[in-house]
Amino acid sequence: MSQSTLRAYLHALEPYSLLPETVVRLVLDVARGMEYIHAQGVVHRDLKSLNLLLDDGVRAKVADLGTSCLESHYGDKCSRMGTYRWMAPEMIGDKRCTRKVDVYSFGVVLWELTTGLLPFEDLSPVQAAYAVCIGNARPPLSPACPPAINNLIERCWSAKPAKRPEFSHIVSVLEIYDRCLHQGLPLLPQPLLSPLADFFKL
User: Fold this and answer.
1) E strand or H helix at 187
2) Cα(143)–Cα(139) distance, rounded to whole angstroms?
3) What does the domain layout of the chain look like in residue ranges?
4) For residues 101 and 90, what is the distance between their CA atoms, to the nearest angstrom?
5) Could you tell me which residue ranges the Protein kinase domain spans (predicted)?
């Protein structure tokens, strides 16, 4: 089985040409992997496209847990483990951290999939960290991306960790999006998802 990173895969796609169906399938793979990791009480701390491997069937797997730790061992402050372009602002600012740092990084990965771009590619890593932590900057959303997916990105990279969804919720949302796309149905923003979720449970 040959493997490539998601970052290398996106770089090879120039010009960018991923369909929403492919975006959702790939991030659903990642979200399911992260849901499992968090269920074990582990925080990845370096989730990024360079640490996501693709197999021959273009399915994604979460890799490189070298900087991971048990959430129960997290102190009041984070050490700056990880990579600045994907790093949550509370990690950059040495504030108290939880597993929600991985949700922030997931939001950046989802953004990468909707644009094909490297986050803050016009800035150095340190400049990107400063922009996120001090200026609350985020990469610009793609106007070509379905609004519901952009809505999920914004929720995942919220400056407030408590406002970021758990991976269990992200998986549920993406499973609904996956069904919608395969059935030709429109994607609904998250606040409007409950009725549709009930429909698919019937």
Assistant:
1) none
2) 12
3) 4-201
4) 8
5) 1-185
Asked about 46 being catalytic, the answer comes back as: yes
DSSP helix/strand/coil, 52: strand
Residue 19 exposed, middle or buried by CB count within 10 Å (0-12, 13-18, 19+): exposed
Burial (CB < 10 A; 0-12, 13-18, 19+), residue 17, is: exposed
What is the rounded (10 degree) CA torsion for 131, 12, 181, 44?
-50
More confident residue, 18 or 195: 18
Nearest residue to 105 (alpha-carbon basis) of 17, 196, 39, 37 = 37
Q: Which of 46, 55, 56, 122 is catalytic?
A: 46
CA distance 97 to 90: 6
| SS3 state at 167 | helix
Q: Write out pLDDT tens, residues 44-100.
A: 999 999 999 999 999 999 998 877 788 877 655 556 678 999 999 999 987 788 999
> Hey, what amino acid is at 53?
L
Residue 170 host element (H or E): helix 167-182
4-201 adopts what CATH topology?
Transferase(Phosphotransferase); domain 1 (1.10.510)
Helix, strand or coil for residue 44?
Answer: coil
Q: Is 39 helix (H, G, I), strand (E, B) or coil?
A: helix
Residue 173 host element (H or E): helix 167-182
Phi, psi of 143 (to 5 degrees): -70, -15
SS3 27: helix
